[in-house]
Amino acid sequence: MRSGALEALVYTELTHLARTAAPDAAGPGRAAAAAWVTAAYTRLIGRSRAAGTTAIMVASLAAVPVLAWGGYTAAGAASILATLLCAAAGRALPAGGERGRRAARRRGNTGGGRRPSRPLRSAVASAAGVAGRASAEIRASGPARRALVLLAVLVGLSGALDEYVPLLARSTGLSTPAVPLALLVVSAGAVVGGWLAGRHTRHTAPALVVAACCMAAGAGAGHPAGLLLLAVAFGVSEWAGAAAEARLQDSVGEEARATVASFAGFGAESVTVLAFGAYALGSVWLAPAALFALAALPYLAAAGALRRR
């Protein structure tokens, strides 16, 4: 669901709500409705990710007594239960935009029944056509390209750096038992950033400059207190990532929305893999503090790109 379908569904349903509330809106009214959709989407996506991060933190803490009580069997049962709850939540989601509503009406008019099967070749051709149309939209839209690249860099880089925070924390002199507490501090910064998503998004470029400075200063401090600055950097990255995702959704049509969002997810994973490789190579010569300081450069590059648009 995080591959693009969920994000597209949320944006499309918000658009449907705006059109239902003001079906005859034109001119300023339509612009106000579009601005509401963008702001609402940014808030929802940011807060849902903040809730997800919080759930991970709570689950990590809860795993200790669960394992002590029932071992891996209890932990596995809890995982299965969580998956079933996610499936139930997914089943409760709306049909999926205007296309889904039209399909539901057609099924209702024909008395239900199963969707007619299609040959594999036809399904592959249909998927290729969807991907082609999404690629065409990205090529034709400068804002879509910029938002896609920015989203991939922010999400991919923060996802990679998160894996190396324990090494940075350990290099500041923290004992091994204290490292999880440092991780909680950095995760809390990301939660705050996600919860504040949608506010003051006009200032994304200067905020990314602040994030870069906090990243470099916090890593170079050589003291556990520097992790507080790192938490600020992660929070700004989460906040800016939600804004970039909203810009991407604004820039494409409904037919290609899920596919374009999936492209962004693939780009983020690619950036994460590249960051893993760069960190592994750089660690031959540099300490974690220096590597984190260098990781601030993409934030500065992103801020510069936003200022030039």
Automatic annotation (TrEMBL):
Secretion signal span: none
InterPro entries given in the database record: MFS_DHA3_Transporter (IPR053160), MFS_trans_sf (IPR036259)
Segments of this protein annotated with the region Disordered: 97-119
Cited SUPFAM superfamilies: MFS general substrate transporter
Spans through the membrane: 50-68, 74-93, 147-165, 177-197, 204-221, 285-306
Keyword Transmembrane: yes
Alphabetically ordered keywords of this record: Membrane, Transmembrane, Transmembrane helix
Protein name (Swiss-Prot/TrEMBL): MFS transporter
Source species: Streptomonospora halophila
Lineage of origin: Bacteria, Bacillati, Actinomycetota, Actinomycetes, Streptosporangiales
